[in-house]
Amino acid sequence: MPNRIHFIAKWRYRFKTMVRYRLMFLTSAPIIFTLIALIGITIYWSIHYTWQSALVDVSERLGVANNSIVLLQQKQANHVKAFAESYDFRTRLAQAQLTDMQGDQALQQWVSEQKNRYNLDFLYLHRDEDISHQVLTGKESFFDVLSAQELNKLDKNLAKRAQVPVLDERKVEQRGLVSRTIIPVRDNNYKIVGFLDGGLLLNNSTVLVDQIRDLIYPSTHDSLRPVGTLTLFLDNLRVSTNVPLDSDQREGRAIGTRVSEEVDFAVLNQSEQWVDKAFVYDAWYITAYEPIKDQHDQVIGMLYTGYLIWPFLKAYMTNIAEVSITTLILLLISGVFVYRGSRDLFNPIEHIHRVVKMIQMGKDTRIGPLGLDEEHELAQLAKQFDNMLDLLRQQKSELEQAAIQLEAKVQHRTASLEEKTSELELHIQLLNQTRDKLVIHEKLSALGELTAGIAHEINNPSAVILGNVELIQFELGEDSDRVKDELEAIHAQIDRIRNITRSLLQYSRQGGVQDEITWQHVNPIIEESITLVKTGSKKRDVEFVSSLKAHTSVEVNRHQLLQILVNLQMNGIHAMQGKGKLTISSEDWLENGEERGAIVHIQDEGCGIKPENLKRIFSPFYTTRRDGTGLGLSVSQSILSQTGGEITVESEWGKGSCFSVYLPKKVESNIDLLVSTR
Q1: 533-575 residue pLDDT tens
Q2: Do residues 597 and 664 touch, judged by C-beta distance below 8 A?
Q3: Over the Cα atoms of the chain, what is R_g?
Q4: Helix (H) and strand (E) counts in the chain
Q5: Of 632, 266, 241, which Cα lies nearest the Cα of 451?
Q6: How many CB atoms lie within 10 A of CB 396?
Q7: Environment class of residue 49 by beta-carbon count within 10 Å: exposed (0-12), middle (13-18) or buried (19+)?
Q8: Where are the beta strands (DSSP E) in 159-209?
């Protein structure tokens, strides 16, 4: 496959770039396209007229088949008339008129026995008048459809012979399609004494359709029009046919199959002739259909003739392919002669092209002699091209010398400037680094002072509250049991305030984690933080959703973690402007299949954080809220960094943020602050 692609690409490149192939294409394309157009038009008109000829042919054969049936009916009528005028029949008829009913039955039996003598399937003498309406139409011979009872009346074996099992359907067609001749029988006084009814049963009559087929398709060696088929239909059911059950193997007969729906509609319903291709049982045929009518001009069936379309198409396409291949071979041979004849013109052009490509690649070469007459246009072009190359080489050499001199002067004058520029860039870099360190130091110093002042200010009121609560508890005595839960809650919150202020004082002193660090399950701490935040946000329309799946215990300061979680949840509520869904979840922190600790995720549906602000949110004093201090995230990150933890954030502007708190399983010392954004 790669070789084939390379071959196609190679020849595509040649046609696009080489003059030889382009000129050959430009000169040959009009001829080739004209020939292709002529072949296409020839094929189109040939197919059109051949198809019309095939339709006319099958239509004519249908006419021949129809005439054959008419002649058959005339012969049938002559046989019935000959029998009616025979001496034996007239003698027996006269004797039967003089005898009783038994003599009439003997005559009837004798008449029925004479059918084989006249090549008829039935012969019957009607003595009643109920048959007279069929004679009044003026037709002696006609097609008719008889029920099983009517067939039995004409001949006792006729109904059984008429049965046609319907293929692919669980039923049997009992009616019979007959070619019938009815003539009146007169006595010596020209009085009608009965009617002779004789004819042929067409159901399962394979001999009849084969005889007609052999008549209208006499040749068996026509590749375009193979031996055709003939079918008699009772309504839309094939009751007599030589259409094979398998068109490829030519085995069996398709008696008991039905005609296609479109032919059924056109011939039976519209009473029109159909001359076109049609699907006949299991293959496409070139067909002709016409309706079969009874004596009252009612359509009772169809007459069909046609032949397989595939041999016709195969032979025709073979002829077209032979013509096309012959034309292509002639074009190929003529193209070879054109190519060889034009080689003397193309070789010098290709040599010039190769020299140009080598010069483009940097090689110093010339075209030289081409083996042509000096007055030849290509020889003069090559000589002028070589002279131009010599002149260009001389000018190039002069330009290179001038460029070397100019470059030496520029390097000499710019050497000192480059040295001073390098020193200046180094000084600017050191200055920027020093400035960043000073800014951070000033912020942390201010944060420490503010934290210490705030902690002292909070401690004083909390001490007063604690003293008053203890006084109230003392004064109430035993009555204090009624508000025991409320007093314990006040004590717990005062302890929490004191722990928070103690943590702030520790942070302001630039010290480590001074409070007690213990093994804790994070889920209870998360639930407590949710309870506290819910209590403070009852007036807000916030939906709290929790999914706590962490199982790993971690070393952590419980009060500080509680403070961090409350701070992050309150930030989420503020980002949602007090309305939305706040999702708090926890999971085990796994890396490479190893448990590292636990992770707490706090996700809000707020406004999110702009990408350019993600790296600044953990800086002290940075805030987007007018009433904010910008200390919450920086303090939380500082507390976590001292135990080896960190806070990361993922945010999409306009959709919300997700803060993740990573808590290590074991407290690590001397861990630098790690802030990553996701």
Answers
A1: 876 666 678 889 999 999 888 988 888 888 888 888 888 888 8
A2: yes
A3: 56
A4: 16, 18
A5: 632
A6: 9
A7: exposed
A8: 164-165, 172-173, 176-186, 192-201
